[in-house]
Design brief:
This protein is α+β, with helices and mostly antiparallel strands. The protein has four domains: 116 residues, no CATH class; 97 residues, Helix Hairpins; 135 residues, no CATH class; 107 residues, no CATH class. The protein is built from four helices and 28 strands. Strands 10, 11, 16, 17, 18, 19, 20, 23, 25 and 26 form a ten-stranded mixed β-sheet that branches. Strands 3, 4, 6, 9, 12, 14 and 15 form a seven-stranded mixed β-sheet that branches. Strands 1-7-8-5-2 form a five-stranded mixed β-sheet. The two termini are 82 Å apart.
Amino acid sequence: MNTSPATSSETTRPSSETTDPSAPELIPLPVTEVTCLEDRAHIARTAALQLASGVQRLRLGPVSALAVDRTLHAELTGGPDGATVLDVRVVRAWTPHDPEPPTDDDSPLRRRLHTLGEERRTLEQRRDRLLARLDLLSRLAADLLREIGEGAGFGEAEPERWRAELDRVDAERASHEDELGSVEAGLGNLRVELASAQTALDSTEEEPPELAAHVELTVRSPAAGPAELRLGHLTPCALWRPAYRATLDDGELTLRTDAMVWQRTGEDWTGVRLTLSTARSSLAAGPPRLVEDRLTLRDRSAAERRSVEIELREEDITDVGPAQVPGLPGVDDGGEVRVLRAPAPASVPGEGRAHRVPLTTAVSPAQSEYVCAPELSALVTEVVRFTGPAGHALLAGPVELVRGSGFIGRATLGFTAPGATQELTFGSADTCRVTREAEESRSTTGLTQRTVVTRTVRVHLSRFSAPDETDDQVIAVRERIPVSEVSDVEVRLRKESCSPAPDSLDAEGIARWDIALPPGGRRTVTLVYEVSASAKVSGL
């Protein structure tokens, strides 16, 4: 066995060379393995060859005309010892589309053009038959006149028969000439209408010639024998993104991981071994540039020492990770290359549409609770927490939510490391209603001249239940209080005025209550906090 990397180049030829009868016959070179990346794909092809002794040139294909020439690589395995690939290149040629009968998906203009073409061909065939018939009648008339001349010379006079035959020939010729005239007139009208329809079609639905390609392989072999060729290359116009389907049933979450694959490489992938990778071959890696970051100190002015300017701002509490990008985002892999493989051969047509390829299916215990954030939404939503059950990292992607009643909506799954906990929202609870009201009062103390702002938030919960419901439903209510970053501003939760007091208050200022509502029950949650600032604080 002898393997050798190949040199590659690109050749573009006229379409006439692709049909050269002296060219070697095309050897099929199907796609057998595909590694789909974030914005391109690596294609692997195999073919069984019958090598002859010496140097020979083989034509294999067809292949995608989008193959990247500089990534073309070919090697021989299992052939005679010393068999070597001398050169491999992609040859491309423009070929016009073959005329095909219109389908139901074609436009009325294209169907009309096809009908006119069929009518023109029918009239041309009829005209050709009439011309042939007239030519035959002309020869018949010439033979009849020659017979009359010869008979008159020999003294054989048959005027009645000659007159009858000449009249019959002239009548048939006149009839066929009239019919030929009407056919020519019809052809003229058809040519005008056909030209008009073709002009309209060319300006609206013009189809450019198709770029076809094949591989030319030059091989040197010391002896004749069979060999296997493996050829690989990169191609654009192919990408994939992860997608999920989460099914909640009796405290268990079934998570199915799929790959949505798009490709328009000009050829179909049929029964290929599909590998999905998050590697970014086009992303150049390098250390970040170091720039100076100068820090300077200065004394505060007298006006700055007398007053402190503050402002209220809202911040989203997020985990570390890439920012959200509108449109089709890239694959979030947590900064590490992830590789997933389809368990079964996959087929992806080259039509540019999304095709779902199943990858894994796993079941995990799930815990659900009803959560409400009245400041953001008046809905009570069911949040399901689960541990990543797939055995591999879960990439960020859309999730289809399914439960016993069927499809209920869509959500988004963030990147989840193996064994980490993730949350999904399974819709809202229509039997619960939440209303929120807030009021604010402002006062100033006499001695210290501190400004005190007191805010009171009331959340009213109610539950509508069926007659057969008897269990309480626990709703986690979340409200927030400001978090001060300035020592001159203090935020204090007045637990004695809260009804009931929050069950927890974290460092981000999120207060939480776990409220149990019986069937048809009503509850009111009151949150009271105050923000006090010294006299030199402005902007509160």
